[in-house]
Fold:
Amino acid sequence: MGDKTETKVEFVALRFSTLLFIIVIGFFVLLGIFQLKNIITNTTQMMYWVVCIGGLFTFFSVFLFWKTKIRGNIEFQNEAFAIQIQQKNQLDVFPYNEIRDYNIYNLPIKKMGVVLRINRTKNSFYWFVFENSNFFNTMTIIRNNLQNKLFSKKLSFLDYVIKGFFFLPIVLLVISILLLVGGLLYMIYFLE
Structure:
C-alpha cells in the first residue's frame, strides 16, 4: 500500500480583500483630509482633525482585520496527492500534479506574517499571520512539506508587487523621520 501519512497544520490567515478595501477607504480618507485644508485655516485645529481622523481610520483598520481573520488548517495528503486548505466553509484542494508553481515568503517585518502563493489555473494567495509562539514552527512545517512535494518554486511579478507593497509602511516611516529631522535642522540653523 502507498504512504498514507499526512501532515495537518492549523493557521490564522487574513484576507487580501480586506487589505484592498482598507486601501480604498484610506484613499478617500486622504482626499477628505486634503479637502479639510480648504475649510479649516487654523493649523492647530487642522492638526487635531488630522490626528483624530488618522486615529479613527487606524482603529477601524485594526478592528476590520481582527474581525475578518480566518482560522483554518492546511493538510498535505500523500494518498490523495493533494494539498487541502480549509477556511471556515471554504475548502481549497490543490492536487500536486495540477500546481504549476508556488512561492512562500516572509513579509519585511516578521510579525506581518508569511504569504503563500499557489498557482494552479490562477494564483491563490494565503496571508498567514503571527498569533502565538508556534507560528514559526508551523511555517517551517509548511515550507518543508511544500519543498518535499512540489519542485516548482519561483517568484512571479505579483510576488514582487506584494513584497513591495508591504515595504511601503517602512518607507513611509523613514521618509517621515527624515522630514522631521530636516524640518528641525532647518528651524535650528536657518530661521532667525
